[in-house]
Each structure stands twice: as structure tokens, then as C-alpha cells.
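Subject: design request, 302 residues
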């Protein structure tokens, strides 16, 4: 089978990172807001300009049950030793739990809650399915950083997601504060594509889910990108139950959590049904299903 065209090459053996044009729109339709949970024209503009949109506390009523369910899953005998459970690079504390919507009806229901699914469908202007779900626990004192990256760059190179018509809707299960390791974003960076130097090691995810190296851009291109975006970094903070829509190609990272409180967030990656994966552009085998859902793709219904 001939390979699909690669409109967003990255990790293709270059010696230096480079900036490339983003050829896709950021929001994919401007129709009227679909129902009571649709985004306003102003919210669409914010997402389009900044690459993210924060809705403080809108799903607070689900937080207690999701936290309790997470506590249950974290110690569930059937999950012990499974690859979906990723520990921190320097301790046995849980860093991430992947595939939560497949393990738990409560998580699956949260992904279909109209307050998060309706805007996701509206922004992508299509039916959507879940490419990946995860909880990042960022435990008190032990939660370690995430390097600068664009999620889309990884999903493109390692999972074969063709175009940036994909986004993450995430829900704070704890308050996210300036000092507990919140996400740091470069607003506007999603409108540029960073093609990262180097190549992708075989089965890179075994390493990258603990400490990402391949696909994380270096200081020169980060400075250039920051300059294009007004030299401004924003931390994404808010109370539990806050929902954030995060464009797939937004450049972001997050620091260690040095505080005595956890910073736990739940992420659902929604992909447009018109943007189904092809063979990974790394040339390697597809990643396991808990990282990259395989066909058949069923549209989610709110
Ligand atoms: O949870 C975090 O702080 C960073 C998460 C992130 O960027 C990712 O999992 O792709
Ligand atoms: Fe990320």
C-alpha cells in the first residue's frame, strides 16, 4: 500500500527543528451553537486565536464521583501491572492511567456529557470518537514534569493522525494552581507547526510516557515560536470541574508538582471522524489501543 501524503512531517531525520506552515483551519465550522452547551461566537474566537478555552468549574458536579472512581481504579487488582498504568520516572507513584473510558462506565459517561462533547463536536464540526483517554495524576511532591510538546505532533508521527482536526477536552479533578504543576501553554502556537529534528526510537512510548524526548523541540525553535506568539506563556488554572478545550497542535508543557496537594486532571482526546488514522508516519507499527484507538470508529452521542 503506498504511504499517505505527509502534510506535517516531523522527526524525519533533520538535524535541526524547523517551523512549517499549518495548512488546516483551527475551527472547522461556524454554524450556530448546537443547543444549550454550544460555544458562543466569542468563545470560538478565543479558541481560534489562543488555541485553548477555559470554562471554569462547569463540570464540578461530576468531580467527587470521578475522584472516587479513580481511587477505586488505582488499586483495582485487575489493573495492577497493566501497561495502561504508567508510573513516575523516579518513583512508583502513578503518573498516568490510560484508557479510563474503557475501564469505567463513569468515565465513559463523563466523555459523553454534553458540556464537553457538544463543544468538541462543534469545534471539529463533525462526529467525533475518542482517540485516547487518560488521567494524569501529578501526585503531591512526586508528580514530575512534562517536556514541551505538541500533542498533534505525537499523534501524527506515532499514530498516523493525518491533520490537526483533533482536540483534547480536559476536566480538572483538583484545583489547578500556579504552584502545583499546571499546564503551561504558548497561546497562539497552535497556528504554527514545529517539525522536530531526529527520528522516533522503536516503541518510543515506553520511554516517552514517563519522560518525553523524541518530538520535544529545542530551545532555538521554542524561542522563535514564542516570538511569533508575543513572548507570553500562560498557566492554565482554575477550580475543580473546570473544562479546557485544547487544540491538538498547541505547544505546552508542565512543571513538577512541588506542593503537598495532587494536581489530577482527566483528558479525553476527540478526533473528527473525517480524520481517521492512517499508517503511522514514523513507519513503525501502530501504538497499542490504549494510546491510539483502532478502527472501527463509533461516533459518540451526547
Ligand atoms: O498533565 C500534564 O501536566 C501534561 C499533560 C500533557 O501534556 C499530555 O499528557 O500530553
Ligand atoms: Fe500534551
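Subject: RE: design request

Done. Sequence follows.
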Amino acid at each position: 500500500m503506498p504511504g499517505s501524503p505527509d502534510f506535517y512531517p516531523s522527526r524525519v531525520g533533520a538535524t535541526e527543528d524547523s517551523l512549517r506552515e499549518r495548512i488546516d483551519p483551527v475551527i472547522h465550522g461556524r454554524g450556530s451553537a448546537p443547543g444549550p452547551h454550544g460555544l458562543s461566537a466569542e468563545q470560538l474566537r478565543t479558541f481560534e486565536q489562543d488555541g485553548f478555552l477555559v470554562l471554569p468549574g462547569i463540570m464540578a458536579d461530576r468531580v467527587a464521583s470521578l475522584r472516587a472512581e479513580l481511587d477505586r481504579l488505582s488499586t483495582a487488582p485487575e489493573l495492577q501491572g497493566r501497561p495502561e498504568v504508567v508510573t513516575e520516572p523516579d518513583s512508583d507513584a502513578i503518573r498516568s492511567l490510560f484508557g479510563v473510558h474503557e475501564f469505567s462506565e463513569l468515565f465513559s459517561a463523563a466523555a459523553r456529557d454534553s458540556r464537553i462533547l457538544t463543544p468538541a463536536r462543534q469545534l471539529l464540526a463533525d462526529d467525533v470518537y475518542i482517540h485516547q483517554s487518560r488521567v494524569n495524576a501529578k501526585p503531591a511532591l512526586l508528580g514530575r514534569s512534562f517536556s514541551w510538546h505538541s500533542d498533534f505532533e505525537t499523534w501524527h508521527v506515532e499514530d498516523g493522525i493525518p491533520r490537526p482536526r483533533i482536540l483534547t477536552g480536559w476536566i480538572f479533578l483538583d484545583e489547578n494552581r500556579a504552584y502545583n504543576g499546571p499546564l503551561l501553554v504558548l497561546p497562539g502556537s497552535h497556528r504554527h507547526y514545529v517539525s522536530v529534528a531526529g527520528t522516533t526510537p522503536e516503541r518510543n512510548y515506553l520511554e516517552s510516557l514517563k519522560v518525553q524526548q523524541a518530538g520535544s523541540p529545542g530551545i532555538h525553535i521554542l524561542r522563535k515560536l514564542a516570538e511569533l506568539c508575543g513572548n507570553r506563556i500562560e498557566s492554565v488554572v482554575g477550580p475543580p470541574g473546570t473544562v479546557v478545550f485544547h487544540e491538538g497542535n498547541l505547544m505546552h508543557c508542565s512543571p513538577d508538582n512541588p506542593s503537598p496537594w495532587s494536581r489530577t486532571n482527566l483528558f479525553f482526546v476527540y478526533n473528527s471522524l473525517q480524520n481517521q488514522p492512517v499508517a503511522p508516519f514514523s513507519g513503525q507499527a501502530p501504538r497499542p489501543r490504549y494510546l491510539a484507538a483502532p478502527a472501527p470508529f463509533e461516533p459518540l452521542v451526547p
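The radius of gyration is 18 Å.
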